[in-house]
Structure to design on (395 residues):
């Protein structure tokens, strides 16, 4: 089977990436022809305002992919924007994709909702700002002709500044927590590129005639859309594309150090590039069962992220069972429990860390691997595009 998948370059990879994606990709590489790409154009569908970190993030992903076991000898590893034909196919697909298919995409609706929620937050904030503006107006030592109008104008300006600060990611993490918004919410997604990103995704997959796409359940609607676009193209111009299937894989959930989903934007991730000291600091600061205040208090491992880490990283099952029992019986303190999990994590992380250091020593080679992979992928894409242009009478 030909398998295609991509990953946005968000920087160094963490444990969540490994268990959610990479481990599965490494397995797939053993049995199938695989095309794995760094989706830098996709990164721009949301984070288009700040591209200063883009190249650094791509480099970190390249290093991590190689260190975590993706093998350029077994499959194609490449960078999306180095194969410009993705953009051409995206354009051609956009001609045949009804707008309604995109507007009903659940991710699009979610993101739009986030945007509205953000505007709501700004409105609430505007309420708070009114008092500040009034106080300021009362301090003005001369008579204001139209007090209300000036007040509204000042309020508008301040609210706009606040929204801009939200979108630019300039607000303090503490304030964001208080407002209950995450960095993901800041993206201004009211763009053509964001609406059309599932079409780009369809082009990414179909240009390699992908038959299988490893995805999580939340991505299923996108694969369905890819299948619909393939069907529509084949109906209009003749059979060129296969209809790819989703390869659903059960992946363990890896909580972040605060118990929420592990994510760079929540600042709760453990990265493969972290030093032992960083891992220790992060684990020692982890949230545990809030009812277990002293060593002798009985705990609830089922709600504790530290225990989830024991399940994932402490290889000895009997030891994990014992930790669970001792926690429940109030025989184990959280500090001791965390020290044990640090050791387990270190046994898991240190081989990757060493490999990462090794890969990083020759960055030129890393670049070459991905350049070479992009060239090979491009050759494949060019052949598909020949078929597409011919089917559409474009040559
Ligand atoms: S003893 Fe361990 S499993 Fe139990 S609450 Fe504390 S950290 Fe969590």
């Amino acid at each position: 089977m030909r398998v295609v998948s991509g990953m946005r370059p968000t920087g160094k990879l963490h444990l969540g990436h490994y268990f959610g994606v990479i481990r599965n990709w490494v397995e797939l590489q053993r049995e199938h022809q695989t095309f794995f790409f760094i989706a830098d154009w996709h990164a721009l569908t949301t984070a288009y305002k700040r591209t200063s970190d883009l190249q650094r993030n791509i480099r970190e992903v390249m290093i991590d992919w190689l260190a975590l076991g993706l093998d350029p000898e077994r499959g194609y590893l490449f960078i999306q924007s180095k194969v410009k034909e993705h953009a051409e196919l995206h354009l051609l697909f956009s001609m045949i994709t009804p707008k309604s298919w995109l507007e009903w995409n659940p991710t699009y609706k979610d993101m739009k909702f986030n945007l509205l929620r953000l505007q709501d937050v700004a409105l609430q904030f505007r309420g708070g700002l009114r008092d500040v503006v009034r106080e300021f107006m009362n301090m003005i030592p001369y008579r204001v002709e139209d007090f209300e109008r000036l007040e509204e104008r000042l309020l508008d300006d301040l609210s706009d500044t606040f929204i801009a600060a939200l979108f630019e990611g300039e607000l303090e993490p503490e304030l964001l927590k208080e407002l209950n918004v995450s960095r993901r919410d800041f993206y201004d997604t009211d763009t053509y590129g964001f609406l059309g990103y599932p079409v780009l995704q369809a082009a990414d997959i179909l240009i390699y005639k992908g038959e299988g796409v490893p995805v999580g359940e939340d991505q299923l609607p996108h694969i369905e859309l890819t299948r619909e676009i393939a069907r529509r193209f084949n109906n209009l111009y003749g059979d060129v594309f296969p209809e790819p299937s989703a390869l659903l894989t059960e992946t363990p959930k890896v909580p972040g150090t605060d118990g929420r989903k592990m994510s760079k934007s929540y600042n709760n991730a453990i990265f493969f590039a972290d030093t032992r000291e960083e891992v220790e600091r992060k684990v020692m600061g982890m949230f545990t069962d809030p009812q277990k205040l002293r060593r002798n208090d009985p705990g609830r491992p089922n709600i504790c992220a530290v225990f989830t880490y024991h399940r994932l990283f402490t290889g000895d099952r009997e030891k994990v069972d014992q930790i669970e029992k001792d926690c429940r019986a109030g025989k184990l303190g959280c500090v001791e429990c965390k020290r044990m999990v640090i050791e387990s994590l270190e046994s898991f992380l240190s081989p990757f860390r060493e490999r990462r250091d090794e890969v990083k020593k020759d960055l030129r080679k890393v670049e070459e691997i991905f350049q070479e992979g992009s060239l090979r992928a491009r050759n494949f894409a060019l052949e598909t595009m020949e078929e597409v242009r011919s089917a559409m009478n474009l040559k």
